[in-house]
Amino acid sequence: MELRNEPNVRQELGLAKIVIVSAIISAILGTIFFFAGNFLPSSKTFADGGGTVFTSKKTGNWTATSTWTETGSGIPVKYIILSGHTVTVNSSRDDIDTIKVYGTLKFNNGKDLTLDGNAGVVEVMSGGVITGGNTSSEIIFDDEYEIAGPFSIAGPVHATGESDGFSAGPLPVTWLSFDSEVEENFVTLNWKTASEENNSHFIIEKAPSTGAFKAIGRVEGNGNSQEIQTYAYKDKESISSSTYYRLKQFDFDGKFNYSKTIFVKSDKEEMAEKVLFPSLVNFGQTSQLNISNVPAGQYQIMVIDVKGNIITQFDHTQMELGMLEITNLATEGFARGMHYIRLNTQSTAETFKLMIK
User: Which of 144, 168, 192 is the last residue of a domain?
Assistant: First the structure.
């Protein structure tokens, strides 16, 4: 009887050894992944806030699909160049929201990268560099300004659509997302950050479709953090018409940056009307005009006088439904009186009145 039972005992001992070895291997792998997750930049860190993330997986050209690992979907669109990788801008590209450089971003002569003018961010981390290019190579913040080559930029530095060139140090706050929820005409704002440095607080600002922004609340920041932070703020006043919100982020030293601006439609509105504001500007003044409720798409924008002459025109890419911003519109060469802003697509045309006094 004992001899007949011996094979079963040996099998059980063998299984026990396998379980023990598997546990040891799992523990070792868990430790490796723990350190990798804490010390290496991860695409998941940035993808958690939504949108599409392209993370370099080797040295290569920007346009080569083999250069990138793609995660997520939709907007914003973010590119991460990891340490040890060199990504070469071999063709001009646009529709970019964020570029984060741990390795090397190299420009070929005459090639551009165009980012969203409102929410665009280029952040060069410690150890990262931007090189190459010539005077015709540019980093463009759409409708805002351009940074021309040749490039020789070493991190940590950053540039945004709100700044004018690169600033020393990392970006105080790396935005992941900013959106809203509407329930019974009360708005809750939600936002996430991927990292924070010296972040004191956020001021919540609100504007009607035809008015200026005003502060309505404050949310404290988390100071210094390399983890995803989640925030929320509920507007105490109900909305009955189209409303805009943005966040003004303050450092402890008083410096500030803006988030992107988001558009919120009231539950009572079946179809949001496009509105130009302000519709009255002073002659000789450089102004920013806004057109509310503009869907995502490609647009041609014209400024036309009362005789039908086109004073100026330009193209604009709208990344998402919301406010279309016409920045730095200089009126020195315009006549006083009525003008028209025309918003054209391939199939539609809409016109808005603009008075220059």
Answer: 168
Question: Total domain count for the chain?
Answer: 3
Q: Do both 55 and 157 map to the same domain?
A: yes
Report the DSSP beta bridge partners of residue 343. 301, 350
pLDDT in tens, 276-309: 888 888 888 888 888 887 888 889 999 998 888 8
d(CA 233, CA 268): 22
Strand 167-168 vs strand 173-183: parallel, antiparallel, or unpaired?
Answer: unpaired
List pLDDT tens digits, range 102-142.
Answer: 999 999 999 999 987 666 889 898 899 999 999 999 999 87
Decide which of 168, 189, 213 is a domain's last residue. Answer: 168
Would you tell me how many other CB atoms lie within 10 Å of the CB of residue 70?
A: 12
In angstroms, rounded to a whole number, what is the distance separating the alpha carbons of residues 333 and 172?
39
Residue 72 and residue 153 in one domain: yes
Q: In sequence order, which residues have a C-beta less than 8 Å from that of residue 112 and are 6 or more positions away?
A: 89, 92, 93, 137, 138, 139, 140
Give the chain's largest Cα–Cα span: 110
- The model's pTM is 0.49
- Cβ–Cβ < 8 Å for 258, 171: no
Distance CA 110, CA 114 (A): 13
